[in-house]
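pinging the channel bc i need a second pair of eyes. not urgent but kinda urgent?? the chain im working w is below, pasted from the shared doc
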Amino acid sequence: MNQRIRELAGRALDKVVPYTWTTLDYDEIQKLQEYFAELIVRECSRIADDWVNDKDDGKNYPSEVIKKHFGVER
């Protein structure tokens, strides 16, 4: 796991279970997984946007395709 993944995982833990992550129940684990996945998708979207040169209406940006595929709204 690289440094950026560790940072995103830390953000997810801080948001979902700030009090402790040593004794997670099923619902907390599910929330963590969903938020972590959303952070990864948002990161991918940001990276994809950096590669786009011609921004018309934004409908066909790689970031929009990625977010739609994973069901993440902006």
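so The chain has a mean pLDDT of 76. and The CA atoms of residues 27 and 33 lie 10 Å apart. — does that match what u expected or am i reading it wrong
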